[in-house]
Structure formats: structure tokens, C-alpha cells
From TrEMBL:
It comes from the Bacteria. This is MBL fold metallo-hydrolase. It comes from Massilia hydrophila. Keywords: Metal-binding. InterPro entries: Metallo-B-lactamas (IPR001279), Mito_Persulfide_Diox (IPR051682), POD-like_MBL-fold (IPR044528), RibonucZ/Hydroxyglut_hydro (IPR036866). Residues 12-172 form the Metallo-beta-lactamase domain. The keyword Nuclease does not apply.
Length: 232
């Protein structure tokens, strides 16, 4: 089954549901709190059992529903080990494999740059890149221990090393696009294709982007899986 792609118009965030073929096990990637009921209804409608909730990083533009989804479904939260996300059942590292269903495997790639802990996930010819690689772009590198040098290496050494026909599913899109391929991004990505490291670092340093509106609320919340902290 192809990934189920869902969208949050407020933060332009994609959420993905992966379903094990021939089984009812499911995994959700980057769920958004305001759409928790929508996502639960998708699972119920399709007769799915949520096994894992995956985060690509500690988001700065929305609050995750990971904690509540795990409470409601019995799923396990699996998060990047370098993002300071407490309370998760699994702290992931580069090269880890998440198994679900009848022999399904999700391969974990540590792809820092947007944040120091950012992860991408590879499953059945698909890669879910979070904010590391976007369609014709990439995530910003100017906060949360971001690094243009690290992002350049993550994309070129890990993501662009995947087969060209790998479907690339980003964490966000702001231009009405949904999916790309690694081969297309390698040849055409406006920020990264055929660009030297020095040129890329200079480009990213000159973006001068505004601070995300929700960063002061979202990051602490997401480091607690979106759940209220005791005493808060």
C-alpha cells in the first residue's frame, strides 16, 4: 500500500500513515495535535492498529499529537535520539530498524542540519525526509542546533545516495506539491542540486527568515511528546 498523506494547512505540515501490506499494523509519522481526531478516524475507518508514532525532529511550527496517540492506542513513540524528546519508548539512532506487520522494516537515517537530531525514514522505496529535504528546497538551518554544513552532508551523502526512483515525501510543502523523487531532487533542487558546499552555506546564511511564530511553545511541548508537563 502507498503511504497515506495528510496535510495541515496552518503549518503546511504533512503527516503520513504507513500500512503493512496484508496486515492491519500501521505507523504514523509527524502527527499534528489539532488533527488527532482526524488521524484516529483514518485508523478506525481502515481497521488499522497503530504500532508506532515516529517524529522526524522536535518541530518548531506545530505541536505533535504523539503522546496522546500513544496513550489512546497503545502505540510506541519512536523519536530521534538527538532531539531531547523525553518520555518516548524508543530513542532512535542512525541505522536502526523499526519492524512492524509481517516483516515490514523502516530504516532510520540520521540526517542532521535542520536540527542536530533530525531523522529520515526509508520504507519500501519511499523516504520520509522531514524538514531536511523539501521539494525543490530544504529546511532552514538557523536555529535548534541547525547547521548548513551538516545538512549539505546529510542530503548529498545519505539522501542523494538512495536510488533515483525512491519516492521522496517531505515534512512540509508551501507550493501545492505532494511528492518528488530522489533523482529529480538530485538534478533540480534549487538549493542543493549542483551546488558547492561553500555556495550552499552562503545561500543558507543569507535567507534571513523570520522566527517561527510557535517556536517558544512548540519546541518545549514537542520535547514532551506534545503532552502537558507536570505542574504546567
Amino acid at each position: 500500500m502507498n503511504p497515506i498523506q495528510l496535510f495541515d494547512t496552518e503549518s503546511s505540515t504533512f503527516t503520513y500513515i504507513l500500512v503493512a501490506p496484508g496486515d492491519n499494523d500501521a505507523v504514523i509519522i509527524d502527527p499534528v495535535e489539532r488533527h488527532r481526531e482526524r488521524d484516529l478516524q483514518h485508523l478506525q475507518r481502515l481497521g488499522l492498529k497503530l504500532r508506532y508514532v515516529l517524529e522526524t525532529h522536535a518541530h518548531a511550527d506545530h505541536v505533535t499529537s504523539a503522546g496522546r496517540l500513544c496513550e489512546l492506542t497503545g502505540a510506541v513513540a519512536a523519536v530521534p535520539g538527538g532531539c531531547g524528546i523525553a518520555g518516548a519508548g524508543m530513542q532512535l539512532g542512525d541505522g536502526d530498524v523499526i519492524g512492524f506487520g509481517k516483516g515490514e522494516e523502516i530504516r532510520v537515517l540520521h540526517t542532521p542540519g535542520h536540527t542536530a537530531g533530525s531523522m529520515s525514514y526509508v520504507w519500501r522505496g519511499n523516504v520520509f525526509t522531514g524538514d531536511t529535504l523539501l521539494i525543490d528546497g530544504c529546511g532552514r538551518t538557523d536555529f535548534q542546533s541547525g547547521s548548513a554544513d551538516a545538512l549539505y552532508d546529510s542530503v548529498n551523502d545519505k539522501l542523494f545516495a538512495l536510488p533515483d526512483d525512491t519516492l521522496m515525501w517531505p515534512g512540509h510543502d508551501y507550493k501545492g506539491q505532494a511528492v518528488s523523487t530522489i533523482g529529480w531532487e538530485k538534478r533540480n533542487n534549487a538549493r542543493l542540486a549542483n551546488r558547492s558546499r561553500a555556495d550552499f552555506v552562503q545561500l543558507m546564511a543569507g535567507l534571513n527568515l523570520p522566527k517561527p511564530k510557535l517556536i517558544d511553545v512548540a519546541v518545549p511541548a514537542n520535547q514532551n511528546l506534545g503532552l502537558p508537563r507536570h505542574g504546567a
